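re the bet — no i am not wrong, look at it urself. input seq straight from the record:
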Amino acid sequence: MPTVTVGQLDIAYETDGPDDAEPLLLVMGLGTQLVGWPEDFVAGLVERGFRVVRVDNRDIGLSSRTDGPAPSRSTVLKAFVHRRAAESEYLISDMADDAAGVLDTLGIDRAHVVGASMGGMIAQQLAISRPERVLSLTSIMSTTGDRRYGRVAPRLLPTMARSLTVPRPTDEEEAVRLGVEGWRIIAGPLFDEVEMEGMVRTAVARATSPLGGVRHLLAILASPDRTAGLRELDVPTLVIHGLVDPLVDVSGGIATARAVPGSRMLLFPDMGHDLPASRRTEMLDAIATNAGRAARVS
């Protein structure tokens, strides 16, 4: 797996598709490796004429880990209470810089950027801080950073709190089982257990980073609201969200679409916090159409 050095970090990445195709950067969400993008989703983008670049965000997969002690449960709980109380070694903006560093190393001046969940936040921030690098933006099951929107469903809070105290599994099969169960509780009614087990098994065999998700969560909670920056964007933008998303309520997607001038929104009634197979063709077509808007503008 190739890596690039960004500052003092090594960021792992993978590319698919011809080198001379339109570049498209995929950024995955909290605690999720680049293998979290379904294989047919990546292949579908390649078929639609893109050179796809996927990255492992810092603290996950084969990218560098943050040094220092594990965040305490009280640190995380304080961060949930108020942004000013959040303590994090880095912010979403730093992760956007990581992604830009990958593009730099690959010699890509401008790219279409697609992010899911926390990856959507990173994609938004990249478009805000480096608009000259972003041809089009797609934000999937994400939110603006305004805490009034995109809230976690109350039923998930006990599970999230337990995850901060339960010892991490050392047995591979137990890690796979817990990973699948974690995805099950945030997915919609189209959850595919067989496919998800395959993805989780690949991720567990590839790398384990038990603190990655916690550090990512703190980065989200400590980062500022992006709404004002989103209002200044002049880039073709697509927002995709599920109406039954329990991890990032659909209000987060609506707030994103309302903030970005001229944005378009695609809502699915049977999508939770996942990328259901039966909806992927529609997503891929919409992403390609949004990218086509950039070609017409330029």
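see?? The domain at 3-297 is CATH 3.40.50.1820 (Rossmann fold). told u. also The chain has a mean pLDDT of 93. so pay up
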